[in-house]
Amino acid sequence: MLEIKNLYARVEGKEILKGINLTIRDGEIHALMGTNGAGKSTLSNVIVGHPKYEVTEGSIIFNGQDLLAMTPEERSHVGIFLSFQLPVEIAGVSMTNFMRAAVNARREALKQEPLKSTEFLKLMRDTQKLVDIDKKLVSRSVNEGFSGGEKKRNEIFQMAMLQPTFCILDETDSGLDVDALRVVAEGFNKLRTPQTSAIVITHYQRLLDYIRPDFVHVLLDGKIVKTAGPELAKEIEDKGFDWIKE
Amino acid sequence: MSENKNAYVKQVADQQYQYGFTTDVHTEIIEKGLNEDIVRLISSKKGEPDWMLDFRLKAFRYWQEQTEPKWGHVHVPFIDYQAISYYADPTAKKTGNSGESGKIDPELEKTFDKLGIPLEERLALSGNTAVDAIMDSVSVKTTFKEQLREKGVIFCSIGEAIKEHSDLVRQYLGTVVPYRDNFFAALNSAVFSDGSFVYIPKGVRCPMELSSYFRINARNTGQFERTLIIADDDSYVSYLEGCTAPMRDENQLHAAIVEIVVMNNAEVKYSTVQNWYPGDENGKGGVLNLVTKRGHLRGVNSKLSWTQVETGSAITWKYPSCVLSGDNSQAEFYSVAVTNHHQQADTGTKMIHIGKNTKSTIISKGISAGKSQNSYRGLVKIGAKAEGARNYSSCDSLLLGSDCGAHTFPYLDCHNNSAIVEHEATTSKISEDQLFYCNQRGIPTEEAVGLIVNGYAKDVINKLPMEFAVEAQKLLSVSLEGTVG
Fold first, then answer.
1. What is the pTM of this model?
2. Closest chain A residue to B433 measured between Cα atoms?
3. ipTM of the prediction
């Protein structure tokens, strides 16, 4: 369970989050919508501990642990995963080496033996099939020369490899055509267990047709101004945000 | 830079140089200073023939008229050539009687064991590498000499070769790097101590990797390596070179010459993993690595490749070069140079195209961290008769942090219109976003840097023989531990 209380945060001296309160229980999907610059990505970056974002007030508790006191990699090890809005390219580093380092770093943190090469390669192959990602993508360098859609698929592939319990999908649907969107969303649904919870950040209803949220929140100017069921997303799609502001 | 990252940078200071120990062994060191008598003394200690002494004396007289070169993008501290001892022999017997040979001091054996270089043949790394182990001025042992001899391959110290294979040495020594080549080449030619000699006869593919391991131990001495490799027609050899030194507060001088001669259809691969002591985090001490390495592709269809991973030394000043005389000859230069703290590297290559349809490739990867300066300097020269010559150069620089420097000095001198010469260069920085991406996937920053740097250097590392490649990868990660800000 993730519990955010009275969270204030700034980036490069500018206050972006102005008192966020949000509780996400195991198994729940929360959609987060809002205008550009409202603070959606800031919130996800603060949860995963990006050093550029400074928390000035408030707390985030994850399964009883003080998340803000943990390093980004420790947060990853306890099961938090961010599907980046803009995944970076890392030239020369193969997906295989990258994932091996990630999987084994987590295993080390959990006091497990590193995976043997054969076990690891089998995990790669099985996961590849599960999320239906092209074998060729996995044999290339991390995101290097990938199209926008390929990068997003690769995020879901990594999610499948690391089996997190709490996921943040930061505009995972942007830049995807309808077919790619379905593949990515279905991939995510396959990975979900009854305990997996998630924040889904999106501008569009269509992703939420595949990933059904339990709650929809509207974030405006650093605060959650409205919370309702899935019907709210539909209403926003039709009417925009202005009616909420008023 | 956040506080957190500053802490990473500070951690560099705590990083240990793994090979910094000293060996407590009786070493015969001649008095400091350099004059004709010293040159004569070195020659007589090595029991050299007269022609060798003449060569040394000519070089010495020439050296006296020269001054140190100043064109490098490095700041070389003042070197007092009279304050250095030019000969240190850790194998000398305490009684002064060097008559009984063959028995190696256990301390020396232990030292090389600790460095991962077993001198016992049965303990050899892969069972397929012969080693010439050199400490200070003397070759301690060369392994697998007999097995190689059966194939006609000569692998021994240059000192032994001068005595035992005098004609071969005399025919080739100084023909690739003449003593008049430069200041340090003249110095080396006058006082060189030990190094390796390799001769691969016609039509022989050397059955094992040959390697030399250089170790500086004694204080206030210089090491003047001299290596000569001759690959006769239709032969092949892969040669590896490794080096380390103890941590000392003062600078140590290593001024080497490596000469390679490649005849018709022959191929030589020369790989270096250079890990001399780089000095401490404030730039105190460290090896001054001032080296002239050159190969002469004399034969048609001959091939030579230099692969180097340079992580050590306070100052590195070296340009493993190729003179492509033979028609259709091919030369390659693959380099990764890492500098950290106050290290300075000015390294690159020269590709001199003389023959027709000659081809050269240059792949250089510089990685700078800390307050270091890392320069690539390369010359591609296409002679008037080098019809159809081709060169491809790619020089990349990777910066870690904002206090270091990366520089590229490419020179091109083309005298033939049919030549095709390409040059590419990039400079990049490991970004905070890349590191964070790794962190988010659970990879700690240190490991992420190692991963990214090894990915960056992959094209060069892949050219190394397997065991060296693994060692080089580790070395890259260790050299850059905690450098990202």
1. 0.82
2. A88
3. 0.96
